[in-house]
Fold these 3 entries.
Entry 1:
Amino acid sequence: MVVINCDMGEAYGLYKMGDDKALMPHIDVANVACGFHASDFNHMRKTVQLAKQFGVKVGAHPSLPDLQGFGRREMKIDREELTNCLLYQIGALKAFLDAEGLPLNHIKPHGALYGMAARSENIAEAVADAADVYKVPLLGMKGTLHQMVYERRGHTFVAEYYADLDYNADGSLIITREHEAKDPADAASRCTRAVNEGKTRSVAGNDVLVGADSICIHSDTPNAVAIAHAVREAVRPYLTAR
């Protein structure tokens, strides 16, 4: 079975990012920004309340401390400092979840941190260190180093497929600072293939192996709502009941 997740709650102060309310009916799980790449205390609580209204589960989407770069730039950071950075962010979100009577569903690192954890053992270990405290599943990419580390550390691993990002020939994600609009029908078709066959076509034209326990859509993709609608209709037979 499959769930659809979305990175959201990424507004900041008076600045808006994505249409979270329009996306909520099409998703099962919200990955809520925790203030270090986007969001703030007001938007975090508003997003949690919106998810509660629509019956959507909420997980933490912590980042490297990079508001200026939206968390999509890599940086050097040691294991202990990163663990503390993650505990700080996840704890803030959990306070808002506690206030609304909701559980923390999972943890999913954001942007550059996600990619770094897929390649660097120290970074993946730091993510697992934070997950040790909250004892919730971790989202990531199948066949990567972070899957090996998370599972070795005893954490439930949820394999993600990306509806609105491209894949390199080696199966790694192409993470851009700004996302481009994608054709909803093509995204839906790729998601269906990922679910059925565990494969997707890379930008080089070869097939790469993927996991699709959960399908991700980014709220900052320009036509995210249209993609989410098309993907949900395409994979509806495989969806886990809310």
Note: The two ends are 12 Å apart (CA to CA).
Entry 2:
Amino acid sequence: MKSIEEQLNEYKERADSVSRESGEAVQAFALELIGEIERLAVENKRLRKALAQSADRRYESTKLRDALRE
């Protein structure tokens, strides 16, 4: 499976080849889609990091709660 960065590079290359073959409207649309993919990739990375941190906090909370019960 390709990483998001590899897929974005592939999309950019394909958008360049399409832009040579078709009009500016298609090129603008392709670039807009690529921009949206990049934005979503950054947001996805941020959300994954937040989720991982949240999971770590829950584990620490459980350990503390168990220690206090003893």
Note: The mean pLDDT is 79.
Entry 3:
Amino acid sequence: MEKIIISGVAAVYIVQQLTHWDLLAPLLGSLVFIAIALLLPKLKGMTLWLTAAFIVVGASFMLLRGADARDWFEAAGINVTIVTLFFFAPLFGIPVRLPSYADALKRFYELNLRSKNALFAGTQLLTQIMGVFINVGSIPVVYQMVFVKPQPGMSQLLANAMNRGFAGAIFWSPYFAAMTLVTSSLGLAWSSILPYMLGLAVLSLLVSWMVDFRELRQVQAEAEPPPQQSVEREGEPEKGAFPLGLGIYLTAAIAVILMLERTVSLPMVLLICMTAVVYPLIWCFFKKEMAVYRQGLNNHLTVTLPALQKEITLFLAAGFFSGSIGATGFGSAVPALLEQIPLPIVFTFSLFTVALIAGTSLIGLHPIVLVTILAGGIDPLSVHISPEYFAVLLLGSWGLSNPISPASAVNNLLAGLLKKTVFEEAAPNYKFAGWMAAVLIIYLLIISDLVS
């Protein structure tokens, strides 16, 4: 029943976007409330309490201002774009897991990333690239490659690299909930902020290496000389080259989205959904790997979607809460308060946003909650910034907050793999998040003229 309702939400949203039929709004809002009601009893711990609080407080706001049925349905539908993305975007990851690509990547790691610095930087970069397409699935994929043999003294450093690599993917991936939420709320094209987000992703690699440089140097000094390179076997890629087919697939996937965004007048989410259905299927067909595609599709429907029920429920509830709070005057109150501070409001608002999102993430609140409220409740012009500046600020804050959040899926996954608590896994990233926050503020001030 849960899968049917979630599928219904995605299907009705797509039809609504294609037909612009207003009568579908009540149906979509009703499906959202039904989905929350069905999934809420399955939640546990902090997620349960947060979701319930969003629904109760949001409903109270709606009742206090005497909202009509249309307002309720519109508030409920704020984050349905994310549910639609969850339903389709993981299909991009099916060809990435082709056995030939996985074997070539393992050999690439073994033969090319011999020094500790190269291993650290390579792990973070590969996690970022893979994360763009397969989201949290990038963590076990890269983990299996990195730890195919023991890595003395490097376990936590490599976990840091994977964690921060995933944060880098949040900055610029068009397939993530973060990008969908921010660009749809602010009415922006993904391509309009892509150059700035790619720049921030590169900076995250440099900041990460700088933060752990001393420890990397110590581990490198204690390491034994690397073993001699093994003789290549016939038919294997020369010197463990990065698999060309995988590189073409990943590059073309981004190029297709960019081309469609510029040539087809449809919302970004619909373009991603259509491409996610067609592109991986065509790739696997011509690679004669349809068995892998069928297995991946079945795994998506039976494993991935059920595993996302917690996030789906929380995101829908956060959207409803954001819609309800939008009419309380929150959007105008924040600029009025910040204007009392004797500093430029652009700087104070940027600092306020980063501190709020990172601070609440540190204590276990998912970044989507604050990002949904800020993106939907504050007019960027009221704080003297452009929508593009606001988007970079929100995405940057979300990305740097993810490695320090005990609620993040990546920290929980790495904690299980390394047999640590989630707080032990998050703690080594506090310094990284602090430096990235400072870099983000400076970066925004530097590019402010470009994004204005």
Note: The radius of gyration is 22 Å.
